[in-house]
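worker-3 :: picked Methyltransferase
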Amino acid sequence: MPDPSAVFGREASSRPSRASLRTAVVWDVLKDALDRRVGSTGKADLDVLDTGGGSGNFAVPVARLGHRVTVVDPSPNALFALERRAAEAGVADLVTGVQGDVRGLFDVAERGAYDVVLCHGVLEYVDDPAEGVRNTVAALRPGGALSLLGAGLGGAVLARALAGHFTEARTALDDPDGRWGAGDPVPRRFTAEQLTGLAEEAGLSVAAVHGVRIFADLVPGVLVDTEPGAAEALLKLEAAAAELAAFHAIATQLHVLAEKPV
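worker-3 :: tokens ->
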């Protein structure tokens, strides 16, 4: 299988892009889960479901590994961009986009038909996150894996405080949904305990928890873009801190990998 850096469109020796700094941790965990599933099933090509997958930020790289990916997204524009992106990557035959959402998932997807399900940036926007997780779990085959990515509460509190918006930071800290005010574009944020709780309540076993964008959103872009070696060093720092529970509390996003019993 290709090196993940090449899958994301850059050579391993080149400087990481700002986008890769934000996705590298999740991609590494996801690729490892895909590889393990290939090993456990003996199948080289898996069936992957990407709920809320949009224009294919993860779906297209997964397809480039040789897996079949179904993307469910409510936006026709995003699905059009997905189709174009898959064609440009030469994986149009492996990527299928369908309009829908996680609440009505089985109007457009099959139950128990997928080896891996991605649910990235979805639970923040649904009325019932627990229902959303239950639906993704129902889509998994026994032994399948769920990749769950949600907005982190602590990262938002820290960002507002560092921007000098102390009242908003305190509001987010106290708000049940982690919102800093009426103008907050994110309807809901999570702690690591809340995300893992949703997975466990749906019958999954949590395999790993990672903090995502712990530092990348806080470091000035000009420093990363102009200081020699800064991007590479930041990428390594993100990877090193991602598994440490102490840093989950300040991550912009939280990633949970969980597995369905066989």
